[in-house]
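Bit of a strange request maybe. I'm writing a small parser for structure token strings and I need a real example to test against, not something I typed by hand. Could someone generate the tokens for this chain?
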Amino acid sequence: VIKKFPNSIGSQNCLALQSKITEKTLGIVIEEVNLPNKPFKSLVKYKNFNKIYFSVYPVKKEDMDKIRQESDSYYNKNKTYKDYNAILIDYFKDKKAILQSENELPDDKDYQGHSVEVKLDGLALGTYIVFGSDKTNLNYDGGCVGYGFTTVSNISMIDRGQKDSTLEFYLLERELGLPIKDAKVDIYEEKYNNLISQYQYNKVTSIKTDTTGYFEIKPDIKDGRNLYIEISKGDDKFEFLSNNLSKKEYKFVNFYQYYKRTEPTGVKAKVFIFTDRSIYRPEQNIYFKAIAIR
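Reply from user aminoacidic:
Good idea to test on real output. This should exercise your parser:
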């Protein structure tokens, strides 16, 4: 159709379908937290290419704030729009990667999407962005680029809420499960500042974990609140970077805490009644027992 009728609508539809079938696609999925200096896996979802190039860069909250500011002001500066992901890729493209590698991918030549796990070398403590590309230079023009964030930390956390809205936490070593003693925990509350028309983080308190890795946060008596927790043990910081387009850039662990709840006082009584069977014949005696608790 394309050769015989190049100017027809059918030919244009065929070209669009052909382009969709042969286009390259790439997606990268990485565990949110990985162990320090230990190899880790990346799930690569790809189509129509057989070699991937990885580049790893350290990333901080300030980097993501700069990228958002560039995205917000790009149109006013250039009178044209630029995709946020392109701005992010260009920001890191000119920086020096701390780790680069390349991997061959299975190529079935079937124009279908495939998935494979790829091993990446271990990283030191910190937060990183991992890029994957079908080209060596992160060129998204005519190629494809995917990326994912990961935090390298030996800290893990277990949390639970009590009936009175107290939040309880245990910090454990991610690899061995041992309690982390004397970890620093800074607790912030998000509140809206009417003077500057934006939310701010107000520090509530700073505490340390006990010998079992435990700490707790008592609720406010009247109001619920958004809490943001910063956790560190020496150079190990348990934090995450968000990649949404919002101007807010959280690097904290986030929880919502309800106001203090009180259980009603007084004695509660319950009665449970059991019969000896579920079905009876006419005029058959029915036997039952009752259990009262308080």
